Amino acid sequence: MTKSTAKVCTNGILLAGNWKMNFGKKETLQFLEALRIAPQLNAQMRLYIPFLSLESARNFSEVNSLPLQIGAQNISGEKSGAFTGEVSASMLQEIGIEHALVGHSERRQFFGETNESVLKRTVGALTQGMEVLVCIGETLTERNADQTEAILSTQLKLLLADTVCKEAFGKKLHVAYEPVWAIGTGVTASPEQAETAHSFIRAQMTEKLGYSIANATRILYGGSVTPANFKELLACPNIDGGLVGGASLKIESWTQLWNLIEA
Ligand code: PEP
Question: Would you say the C-alpha torsion 103, 13, 199, 19 has a positive or negative sign?
Fold first, then answer.
């Protein structure tokens, strides 16, 4: 699958980086100072970075007119109160942050996030006016047991049934398909495997929300994306960009990924 195919999604491409627990404020600003990127007509760049650097990164980006959005890697579903260690939407908005990642597999694996808590965070964030990228994806055991579609369907179910989410899909709510076995492993889903999962996700959305919302919703692929495999993945009709870990931490690979979008 190397030939570029027309996109199903009408909303353009999103290249999103997930820095995980990497880079403090100093390294963040060094990265942004070194970033040389031109805006693209039909694509957006976004970096989900640690909480502590959000404000300076966002300010740097704005002052230097970078074509770059800055987002948080997690967000509370609650407005305020006794939730130690959590960060609310209004705190993020006060420093100009409008984007949050929710339900990354590392949050699910290491911090006990469930489909229910992912829903709660997503709904809370949307209600407060944030834009959310929600992550779903199967483990290797689940794929090997032929459960990929069942798992994706379960992970989507609560979101597709919720009134706030239904209203936000395709506008302020988008999806990242990240097979857990491909995250940080160097093993990428083949374009065929990824496209099959993405078109299944789109079909689930179409069934519950109708064509126009489903086709307005970006479905990003994440899992060992590099400049060597991104173009082929991006050529798939239902892949609307990438959520990138490792390759977003190096200026060279991150810039290459961006330049591959229109190339
Ligand atoms: C991720 O962190 O969401 C991710 C996909 O990481 P990597 O690109 O390193 O596999």
Answer: negative
Q: What is the mean pLDDT of residues 199-224?
A: 97
CA distance 146 to 6: 29
Q: Which domain holds residue 180?
A: 14-260
Report the CATH number that the domain containing residue 216 is assigned in CATH: 3.20.20.70
State whether the beta carbon of 223 lies less than 6 angstroms from ligand 1. Answer: yes
The answer to the question of residue 248 being in a domain is yes
Helices 54-63 and 25-34, axial angle in degrees (round to 10): 20
Q: CB of 243 closer than 6 A to ligand 1?
A: yes
pLDDT in tens, 26-50: 999 999 999 999 999 999 999 999 9
Catalytic residues, by residue number, are: 104, 178
Model's pTM, two decimal places? 0.96
